[in-house]
């Protein structure tokens, strides 16, 4: 009798494990797709290490206590920092994450789609290496915004072009997988994560058209010597047509993780599928026609158009508020489900020891002051007080360099073992939590000091200087020392992050790590089909771009002064 | 599409705040005239030193205009001309500046006098200097190796020094 029971139990066990096995197979990233995704992650974290090192050197130099050896220039190091962290870490991580996200939620890529992805990856990598070589040879110390008429070697511009073109191929591969899903599942709402990837890619494509035009029609012919002069204001305007959407391109993958992954990690549900999609569509249409808010203090653009773009910039607050509401609603619902009582009692029931939650959560908190500072920056004439001061550097170290990257790191801590077939062990999880906490401390000191020094007038992107012994510049120095302290803590955090990542890639015990994808809460309304109608939102996007940019660009071209020859002042 | 009641309140409150902010900025800009530099004045940047008023950089007292002084300033890698600007407190000043080479910044540290100087364009800002003190003018746009060596000084001095005030 005992035997019978045992065998029955065994059968049950086998059955349930079979079921969970099949389920696991469906909920895993395809093995071949995992390789493609991992390739991106190698590049991204290499960029983090090198770019972080460059950042450390910068804060040291700016403290006034340290000089760079071997004739290395401060602005060369600054270019390395900006390009590697702002462009390479982000783009590679985003593309790697997105390949995995689609494979996980819409299904494995076809061979053609995956091949397209690999071609894209190699183009991006070759582009990165070519641009990096030019920076290291000191042929391209033009910072990651490469403003004309400072003129870099043409290979630098070509390298960045390859990064963008490669990313287009990857976007195309991802869009093809989405289209395939739509064909195979007519009339159904697409998987939320896949949908979000497609929106982000569409935004990226429309935005990069601006910088592509700048590089192909202006910078490349000019640096190759085919044309002698360049329209500086036009090149800056095309750059910022791209440049602000670039920051949303960094942000939206973090939003994907907040909206879709975090609810599952904490054991809760997605608050609303429809509202998540709506907020992504709002980001899409408000991403590009706002770039002039980076040019408020520039001549040659009329105040009316600057103000119009101020208004459009401000409206991105709406999807941000929606996101904040959804996140905290998910947290509260889950906290109460676990027995949390009172107005804030649910808060302590959240999984504070789980790095998959804690690390991105720190990012979310940083986004509150980060977003508020952004509103200050975008406030037209208020921008005069902080434009190009180190306040701005402090601002985007809260947004992209905390909110966004901590979310990426928090995701990498489960994504990498998921892709390599390993486990995030308790010990690694604890180290991961330490990275998040150190980041918070380091950034609070560094970014806080940057914000204050910026209000006192300290310029960004500047080597240590006493400005002829000026009293004001003396005031800035103590804040620069604080930045060096914060920056050092951040660099130690980076070393620890690399340690965790290396373990997850090659040394952690074999096992299965979940790729968490949340389900929508019961009682959340059905998703209206309009939210997936790319034609409608595409038309609105193009219309807003035409309204916001046509007349300013015609004005710039029509009133353009004599163009500029190239300068190499470094 | 279903939107939770609290979320509606939250969004109405948020969007309402936004509109108030925009109204304040808009009224301040278009009614009170507090625009940042929006100058449309273009110039041949290679001949700046020959073209008026840049053939004579410095502080000029003017009559019959809405401002009392004109400050004409030329930026080049890596210095400003003039190196020192002195203005009596309380005067209304029109800053007129341009560059002879790459993009530079013109930022009077700790104030809202802050504009980009781009080759081919003249940048302008009219403002009243209402606080005595010595202000550092810094270049806040990366322009090359000597970028952080580029500065000038704005001295806002007691008006007793000047008979007209």
UniProtKB/TrEMBL annotation, chain B:
It catalyses: 4 Fe(II)-[cytochrome c] + O2 + 8 H(+)(in) = 4 Fe(III)-[cytochrome c] + 2 H2O + 4 H(+)(out). CDD domains: ba3_CcO_II_C. Residues 55-165 form the Cytochrome oxidase subunit II copper A binding domain. The chain crosses the membrane at residues 9-30. Signal peptide: none annotated. Keywords: Copper, Membrane, Metal-binding, Transmembrane, Transmembrane helix. It comes from Lysinibacillus telephonicus. One of its GO terms (cellular component) is cell envelope. One of its GO terms (molecular function) is cytochrome-c oxidase activity. Subunits I and II form the functional core of the enzyme complex. Electrons originating in cytochrome c are transferred via heme a and Cu(A) to the binuclear center formed by heme a3 and Cu(B). This is Cytochrome aa3 subunit 2. It is found in: Cell envelope.
């Amino acid at each position: 009798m005992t035997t019978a029971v045992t065998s029955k139990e065994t059968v049950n066990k086998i059955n349930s494990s079979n079921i969970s096995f099949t389920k696991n197979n469906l909920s895993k990233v395809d093995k071949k797709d995992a390789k493609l995704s991992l390739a991106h992650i190698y590049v991204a974290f290499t960029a983090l290490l090198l770019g972080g090192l460059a950042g450390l050197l910068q804060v040291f130099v700016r403290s006034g206590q340290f000089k760079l050896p071997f004739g290395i220039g401060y602005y060369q190091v600054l270019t390395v920092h900006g390009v590697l962290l702002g462009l390479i870490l982000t783009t590679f991580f985003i593309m790697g994450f997105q390949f995995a996200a689609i494979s996980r939620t819409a299904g494995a890529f076809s061979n053609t789609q995956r091949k397209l992805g690999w071609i894209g990856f190699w183009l991006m990598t070759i582009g990165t290496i070519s641009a990096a070589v030019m920076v290291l040879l000191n042929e391209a110390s033009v910072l990651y915004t490469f403003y004309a008429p400072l003129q870099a070697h043409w290979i630098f511009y070509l390298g960045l072009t390859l990064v963008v073109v490669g990313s287009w191929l990857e976007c195309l591969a991802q869009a093809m997988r989405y289209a395939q899903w739509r064909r195979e599942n007519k009339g159904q709402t697409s998987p939320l994560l896949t949908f979000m990837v497609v929106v982000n890619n569409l935004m990226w494509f429309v935005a990069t058209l601006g910088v592509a035009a700048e590089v192909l029609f202006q910078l490349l012919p000019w640096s190759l010597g085919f044309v002698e002069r360049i329209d500086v204001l036009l090149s800056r305007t095309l750059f910022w047509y791209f440049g602000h959407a670039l920051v949303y391109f960094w942000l939206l993958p973090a939003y994907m993780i907040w909206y879709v992954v975090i609810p599952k990690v904490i054991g809760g549900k997605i608050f609303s599928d429809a509202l998540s999609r709506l907020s992504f569509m709002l980001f899409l249409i408000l991403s590009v026609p706002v770039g002039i808010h980076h040019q408020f203090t520039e001549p040659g653009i009329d105040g009316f158009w600057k103000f119009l773009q101020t208004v459009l910039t401000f409206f991105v607050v709406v999807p941000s508020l929606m996101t904040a509401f959804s996140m905290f609603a998910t947290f509260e619902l889950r906290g109460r489900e676990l027995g949390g009582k009172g107005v804030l009692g649910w808060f302590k029931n959240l999984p504070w020891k789980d790095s998959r939650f804690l690390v991105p959560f720190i990012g979310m908190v940083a986004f509150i002051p980060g977003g508020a500072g952004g509103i200050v920056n975008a406030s037209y004439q208020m921008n005069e007080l902080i434009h190009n001061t180190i306040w701005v550097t402090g601002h985007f170290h809260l947004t992209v360099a905390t909110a966004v990257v901590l979310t990426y790191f928090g995701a990498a801590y489960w994504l990498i073992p998921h892709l390599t077939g390993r486990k995030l062990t308790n010990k690694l999880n604890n180290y991961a939590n330490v990275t998040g906490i150190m980041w918070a401390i380091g950034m609070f000191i560094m970014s806080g000091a940057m914000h204050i020094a910026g209000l006192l007038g300290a310029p960004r992107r500047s080597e240590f200087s006493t400005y002829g012994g000026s009293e004001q510049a003396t005031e800035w120095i103590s804040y620069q020392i604080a930045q060096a302290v914060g920056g050092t803590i951040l660099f130690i955090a980076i070393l620890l992050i690399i340690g965790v990542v290396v373990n997850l890639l090659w040394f952690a015990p074999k096992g299965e790590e979940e790729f968490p994808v949340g389900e929508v809460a019961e009682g959340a309304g059905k998703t209206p089909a309009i939210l997936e109608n790319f034609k409608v939102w595409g038309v609105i996007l193009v219309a807003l771009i035409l309204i916001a940019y046509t007349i300013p660009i015609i004005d710039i071209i029509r009133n353009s002064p004599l163009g500029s020859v190239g300068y190499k002042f470094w | 599409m279903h939107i939770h009641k609290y979320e509606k309140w939250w969004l109405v409150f948020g969007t309402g705040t936004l509109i108030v902010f925009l109204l304040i900025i808009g009224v301040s800009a278009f009614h009170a005239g507090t625009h940042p530099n929006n100058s449309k004045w273009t110039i041949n940047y290679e001949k700046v030193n020959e073209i008026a008023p840049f053939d004579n950089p410095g502080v000029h007292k003017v009559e019959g205009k809405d401002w009392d002084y004109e400050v004409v300033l030329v930026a080049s890698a890596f210095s400003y001309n003039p190196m020192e600007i002195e203005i009596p407190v309380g005067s209304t000043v029109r800053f007129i500046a341009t560059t002879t080479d790459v993009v530079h910044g013109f930022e009077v540290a700790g104030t809202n006098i802050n504009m980009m100087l781009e080759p081919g364009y003249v940048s302008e800002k009219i403002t009243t200097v209402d606080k005595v003190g010595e202000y550092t003018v810094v270049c806040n746009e990366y322009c090359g190796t000597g970028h952080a060596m580029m500065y000038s000084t704005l001295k806002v001095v007691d008006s007793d020094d000047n008979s007209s005030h």
